[in-house]
Recover the amino acids of this structure.
């Protein structure tokens, strides 16, 4: 059991069926929160996760399928949250998608798909959550961004633009919602290994990644999840409008050809 206490809190995690989202669901439940797991296309995984979390941590869980870029589906999802869990205290906007396409080859529909899922979806969910939190005395909205909200990457102009938008979305939300006792932060992972990218990392060369990252290794989903749980807790009560990067200093080490002089022996 985590030292962080979220007992009695009601959390919604979008894109919660796999990867970082699933780890966040588990961690919030381990801290005592009831969790609604949103999924888009992985219903079976979401249901299995909900059952496992319910049995292990003795909390209430449920699942709901919704495309977060569709306002009607988002409204229906929050109605399920109200009916099944009785409200919301914590929203984790984790749902996201990407594709690697050269900017000159990118179709408008692909730009729209990625922007709408990542950025518009975060806005729609934050709006629904904020309206409810305003009435109940407050809450926390945590937007999962990326180091690419600041660091550009070839082939991902739509993804990077969406994540940069999420960074500013979080800051604007923190200003507008603070008077309602709603905190908003962005959590930005770097290179994090998941079941979805494990083979890609292996093919690219995990050792190469490790050498690029100053902390010497690719991150783990549990490290993002623990950070989210902390940010959702009263321990982080004065953290509002902040961007927290979880990347082992990866984004600070963009020049890969530096000489890395060894430490002199004392």
């Amino acid at each position: 059991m985590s030292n962080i206490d979220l007992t009695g809190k009601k959390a919604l995690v979008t894109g919660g069926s796999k990867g970082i989202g699933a780890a966040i669901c588990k961690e919030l439940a381990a801290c005592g929160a009831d969790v609604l797991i949103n999924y888009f296309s992985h219903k079976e995984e979401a249901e299995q996760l909900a059952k496992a979390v319910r049995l292990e941590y003795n909390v209430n869980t449920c699942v709901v399928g919704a495309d977060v870029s569709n306002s009607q589906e988002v409204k229906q999802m929050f109605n399920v949250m109200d009916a099944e869990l009785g409200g919301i205290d914590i929203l984790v906007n984790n749902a996201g998608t990407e594709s690697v396409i050269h900017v000159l080859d990118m179709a408008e529909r692909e730009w729209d798909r990625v922007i709408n899922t990542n950025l518009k979806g975060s806005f729609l969910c934050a709006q629904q959550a904020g309206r409810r939190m305003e009435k109940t005395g407050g809450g926390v909205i945590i937007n999962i961004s990326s180091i690419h909200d600041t660091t550009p990457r070839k082939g991902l102009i739509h993804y990077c633009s969406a994540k940069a938008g999420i960074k500013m979305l979080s800051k604007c939300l923190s200003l507008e919602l603070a008077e309602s006792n709603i905190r908003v932060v962005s959590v930005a992972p770097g290179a994090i290994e998941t079941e979805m990218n494990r083979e890609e990392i292996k093919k690219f060369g995990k050792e190469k990644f490790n050498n690029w990252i100053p902390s010497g290794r690719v991150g783990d989903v549990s490290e993002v999840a623990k950070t989210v749980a902390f940010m959702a807790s009263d321990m982080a009560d004065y953290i509002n409008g902040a961007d927290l990067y979880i990347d082992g200093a990866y984004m600070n080490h963009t020049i890969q050809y530096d000489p890395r002089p060894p430490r002199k022996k004392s």
Notes: The longest strand covers residues 182-189. DSSP finds eight helices and nine strands in the chain. The chain has one domain: 10-243.
